[in-house]
Design brief:
By secondary structure, the protein is an alpha+beta fold. The protein is 19% helix and 28% strand. Helix 2 runs parallel beside helix 3 (220-229), helix 5 (286-294) packs across helix 8 and helix 10 (429-439) packs parallel to helix 11. The longest helix has 16 residues, at 348-363. The radius of gyration is 26 Å and the shape is globular. It starts with a strand and ends in an 8-residue tail after the last helix.
């Protein structure tokens, strides 16, 4: 018995039943727990009204019910819809019933699977080939409570540097210094915002990690300085495989310091990767993680700002998909010993990311580490971001970008996204443009493609596509302070950055299958185009009141609407009563000092929380941050009020804020700031605008709202309950 749950134990046969204090069943054993030799299994009833989410990276629709998914990290070398497994599994399940959410963490990293009603529609089973039978159960009245409990246990995401939220450009095939200089020049000349350029394996000397090719990259430090002067951060790929090569210092030191994985007979594990035969560090040893982290010093000194951990399932090169090390490879496991199949494999990528992050932090304690990992496990959010792996340049993979990102976020790893445009294949101009629009609203925003494919830079398709893509990039950068606030909420309480529609109105079961639209934070609804040739689409707006983001048109929720979507437009909606912090367009984060912030207010009843700090450095961990709390409401007199409360010691660089209040149907009589008349304000097209120093309360005072559209807004504004 806890303050939230009651566990009832049946001894013969042994079964567990969990219920909340109201007597509602949360989980009930079916066949319950069972053991056979090394195998462990736990089965529970799967009620007909339960929706199934989470479990890491899945190339499926959002609701996983009826599937059997592997708990095993694998490299499928590109994948199609419904292929399983892919690059990482997270053994955290999120179940949603009519008015209850709960989570299960299957705390066993051994190879296994989860059956979500595939064999028996009324039964769910966790299975592992070895290890302990141990699980954690979390329950709450909504998803937010469950994820808060889960991330309290497995760890919260640290705040990334602000630049990591910008646009990233990558390609396997940027193979020389001159190429990077040219790419950087084109971005800045064409005024296409971008913060990061990626160095794939082409930069290395014979694919040896922690080296570079001195012929193709004769002046790495000079290149880094040139890119930094233009506002670019450089991110370098690093694989775990270390080439067996006498004379290669990393290899020699690794052998001397006994850092590599071994077979049971104590011989070193060897397998082929990009450079040839390789050994593999044992990241389950703290000593080895420290050794690995220190190796990054040379690349950090050269000017790299982030690291991209690839091939870390770990994956090896042969003729078969899913190839990895043998099951019987031995891992140190903090001195306890563990086989590859019983745990070493599934935690390998996460612990490589941990070693990388900790090494970066030791060497650059005043900088926030940026690490991206292909393989992960429960708790990986503490160390790295991720992406959806080697996807395809198809419309179906554009759509999969949504469901995969959502389920990974519901598994605790919120900082993720696809290779926009597709890694394998060549998108046409329409697909690329639509994917860029979608990518601009996802947590991790990167274009990446494989060698041998056509160019996929934002200018590659000419006009009108370049201008449309530029608009998507510019909107991303304008919304960065809002997006950053959603990251801060994730870092604090585990809330995903992008959220499935059912989190916007938890009681509405119609929303639980939707995976072609989503929420960015709690204020923006994103409805991308997912089919070729489409110029409109159906969008479901949850209960409440919404505004079209670009037109300001007011729309009642609780219904499907037809959204117009010519190529230059992706439907985007803002929730009434919300405040969106925005910046002027910048070509990269920090390009210019922020002298005036912008608050876009959507008239209605609601609350908004905004987070601010320096966007870099670790001072925020010592209290140098600020939370702003906004309450928007219509008063009985017809006035619209904005209350602004601030808490925290961070002092932002701007001295003024430009407030834009959308949804005011006629010119008001006046604008009052902290009880005094605002000296200057403007009204045009339903928007009241004023530029002021930070205030505690602002009021828009109408001339007469008796029969106006604003009065209708008052009567139908969303209640706190309908806002979820």
């Amino acid at each position: 018995h806890t303050e939230h749950l009651i566990c009832r134990v049946n001894k013969q046969p042994f079964r567990l039943l969990f219920e909340n204090l109201g007597g509602q069943i949360v989980s009930q054993d079916g066949e319950g727990m069972s053991y056979r030799e090394d195998e462990v299994r736990w089965s529970r009833y799967l009620p007909a009204e339960e929706w199934c989410y989470g479990l890491g990276q899945r190339a499926h629709s959002l609701n996983l019910r009826g599937r059997r998914v592997a708990l095993w990290n694998a490299n499928p070398q590109t994948y199609e819809r419904d292929n399983d497994p892919t690059y990482f599994s997270i053994p955290f399940y999120l179940g949603v019933k009519s008015n209850l959410a709960y989570g299960i963490l299957w705390d066993n990293p051994a190879r296994g699977h989860v059956d979500l009603g595939a064999d028996n529609p009324q039964e769910m089973t966790f299975y592992a080939e070895g290890g302990e039978l141990r699980y954690y159960l979390f329950a709450g009245q909504n998803v937010e409570k469950v994820l808060q409990h889960y991330t309290t246990l497995t760890g919260h995401m640290p705040l990334p540097p602000m630049w990591a939220l910008g646009f990233h450009q990558s390609r396997w095939g940027y193979d020389a210094e001159v190429v990077f200089r040219s790419i950087a020049h084109e971005f800045r000349q064409r005024r296409l915002p971008c913060d990061a350029l990626y160095f794939d394996i082409d930069y290395m000397d014979g694919y040896r990690c922690f080296t570079w090719d001195s012929e193709r990259f004769p002046d790495v430090s000079g290149l880094m300085q040139n890119l930094a002067a233009q506002g670019f951060k450089a991110v370098a790929i690093i694989d775990p495989g270390i080439k067996v090569d006498p004379g290669y210092l990393v290899y020699e030191k690794g052998v001397q310091q006994d850092v590599f994985l071994k077979y049971p007979d104590k011989s070193l594990v060897s397998a082929p990767v990009w450079p040839g035969l390789c050994h593999f560090p044992d990241f389950t040893s703290a000593r080895v993680r420290a050794w690995w982290g220190d190796l990054h010093a040379s690349l950090l000194d050269a000017g790299f700002a982030g690291f991209w951990n690839d091939m870390n399932e770990p994956s090896i090169k042969n003729l078969k998909d899913f190839a990895t090390l043998q099951d019987y490879v031995v891992h140190d496991w903090d001195g306890l010993g563990q086989s590859h199949v019983d745990g070493g494999h599934n935690v390998y990528g996460m612990l490589m990311a941990r070693a990388t992050r900790e090494g970066m932090h030791r060497q650059r304690p005043d900088k926030r580490p940026f690490v991206i990992t292909r393989a992960a496990y429960a708790g990986a959010q503490r160390y790295a971001s991720s992406w959806t792996g080697d996807n395809l340049s198809t419309w179906d993979h554009l759509r999969l970008s949504i469901s995969m990102t959502l389920n990974v976020g519901l598994s605790g790893l919120a900082f993720t996204g696809p290779d926009v445009g597709g890694y394998a294949g060549e998108p046409d101009a329409e697909l690329y443009t639509r994917w860029m629009q979608l990518g601009s609203m996802l947590p991790f925003f990167r274009v990446h493609t494989r060698t041998g494919t056509a160019s996929q830079e934002p200018w590659s398709y000419g006009e009108p596509y370049e201008s449309i893509v530029r608009a998507a990039l510019e909107l991303r950068y304008q919304l960065l302070p809002y997006i950053y606030s959603t990251f801060a909420q994730c870092a604090q309480n585990g809330l995903p950055v992008v959220r499935p529609m059912f989190m916007a109105d938890f009681e509405n079961t119609e929303l639980r299958e939707i995976d072609d639209q989503f929420m960015l934070g709690d204020a923006l609804l994103v409805a991308p185009i997912t089919e070729p040739g489409a110029t409109q689409r159906q969008v479901y707006l949850p209960r409440g009141v919404w505004y079209e983001f670009d037109t300001g048109k007011l729309i009642d929720g609780g219904q499907h609407v037809t959204a117009q979507a010519p190529l230059e437009r992706m439907p985007l909606y803002a929730r009434a009563g919300k405040v969106l912090p925005m910046w002027p367009v910048m070509q990269y984060v920090g390009e210019q000092p922020l002298e005036e912030a912008r608050l876009r207010v959507y008239a209605g009843s609601g609350e908004t929380t905004i987070y601010e700090d320096a966007g870099e450095g670790m001072a925020y961990q010592n209290g140098d941050y600020r939370w702003s709390y906004f309450i928007c409401k219509f008063l009985p007199s017809g006035q619209f009020a904005i209350e602004w409360r601030r808490a925290g010691q961070y002092q932002p660089p701007y001295q003024r804020v430009r407030v834009e209040v959308a949804g005011i149907p006629s010119e008001p009589e006046s604008v009052a700031l902290d009880g005094q008349s605002a000296p200057i304000w403007y009204y045009e097209g339903g928007i009241v605008e004023f530029s002021v120093t930070p205030f505690n309360e602002a009021r828009v005072i109408g001339r007469s709202y008796t029969s106006s559209a604003a009065q209708k807004t008052i009567t139908r504004r969303p209640s706190p309950e309908s806002q979820g």
